[in-house]
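Please go through the sequence line and token line underneath and see whether the fold suits the sequence. See right below:
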Amino acid sequence: MSGSKAPAGESKPAQNKLWGGRFTGGLDPLMEVYNESLSYDKAFYAQDIAGSIAWARANKNVGILTEKEFNEIERGFSIVKKEWDTESFEIKPGVDEDIHTANERRLGEVIGQSIAGKLHTGRSRNDQVATDLRLWLRDQLQTLQTHLTSLLRIIISRASTETSFLMPGYTHLQRAQPVRWSHFLLSYGFFFAADHQRLAHVLKDLNRCPLGAGALSGNVFNVDREAIARELGFEGICWNSMNAVSDRDFLLETMAWGSRFMGHVSRLSTDLILYSAQEFNFVRLADAYSTGSSLMPQKKNPDALELLRGKSGQMHGILAGFTATMNAIPSCYNKDMQEGTQAILATCHLLTTSTQILTGVLSTLSLLPEKMSAALEPNMLATELADHLVRRSVPFRETHHIAGRVVALAETRGVRMDELSLQELRGVDGRFGDEVVEECFDHGRAVEKR
């Protein structure tokens, strides 16, 4: 009935809520908690303030705000930002729903509501949060680029100075052919270099400004969106207002990038876990990245590498979860999309810390080259025998079979392949040359040929 009061125990939404005017009843207390996002989106306080100042300037330029009012807003936000920077900002539970509400509420307390109340003119939280996300993520990914560059430098530095160490190369986790440690290390270096290139593309794709798109249909006051974009460091604007507020592909692309990157991290971690095991004993982790056993004093566990491998699974899960969230959302903004905020916060933390940990592991890793060398065995040179015969004009398919027969002969005799005499080799095939033993049974020579 028109004019009726809200039921006892209910209250109108707080005055500072950006959506409160249409509602006469209060929120269920559980819904207040379920709905709030300030506990995590406060991470965007600096970006939210920067976006609000740019928005205020745009409104000043079209006459919505006077020069004096704009100056007051800019002054007020400098105070608000300093409070966040010094961790003295006072959050008001039940009042500050999100970072946008909190910043505007505090701005009103600092400069007065008569001016602060004009700030949101023509703006929606839909384009505001999209802008905050892009600004914050851009900063995070630029930091991640720096860490990834440091990882690549460590790999390149070690590979360039550790070229003399030979080790078995593995396929199917079986000893295959001799390789250099530096060759192995750079195989992952190229994975990470490709990741670095792809990250630059992710950064470029997200660097478009949605501010001015409004709730979905644009801005009626003809603000200069290009000027806003330039002030905030964007390369341009999001052209379609409905797309601008509904697009979270830049979050999904970051998560997909992270999933692929962490897949590479996981594979390297597994190799190093194996190589650090006593059965291999090629490498030794620094104490800073290892732990012991609570029962077995002799244990030194590669916990850093195991955690990196485990975090890759978490990254795959974040991507799968938010992909499912976005899968069936209708056009424009829907509250489901708020779930992307926690997902991207977790993503950036995971990627940044993991990159730093892996860099630390690799920069402090000790090598045991004598153990690497001891693991080299003559059977790994069977392909050299085949190639020797190829150089003597024997078809490879035939030489492959001949080399396999040599391996079988050594196994039958119970000797190493390089212990077979030239006569025994020629007993398998008379086309082996006099130089076959010297040419084929040298791991270093085999590596140099390649």
Observations:
- Residues 1-11 have pLDDT under 50 and may be disordered.
- The longest strand covers residues 174-180.
- Strands lie at 166-171, 174-180, 208-209, 236-237, 283-284, 366-367.
